[in-house]
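Why does residue order matter? Because the sequence determines the fold. Keep that principle in mind as you read this record.
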Amino acid sequence: MTVETTVTLWMVDEVPARMIYAGRRWRVTDTPTRLRESVWAVPLEEPRSLYGWRFQATDEDGASFVFDVYRAEDDWHVHRTYA
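Structure:
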């Protein structure tokens, strides 16, 4: 599913470790993969350097999803989730 939702992301040594998304707390439960501009499926409205991460995260109830997140000017956004 494609979404464009702001997320609060905590980093450890510049790698995602935890986040708050959709009102839930998530813990990164695999090794995140850095994403570069070439992987984004939607064109950007303004040219800029875009990077992000793909990782699996698990919430407090044990639900796990894979997330693609990217850094905008001042915050992080979830671009896509995979069940």
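Strands lie at 2-12, 15-21, 24-28, 33-35, 52-59, 64-71, 76-82.
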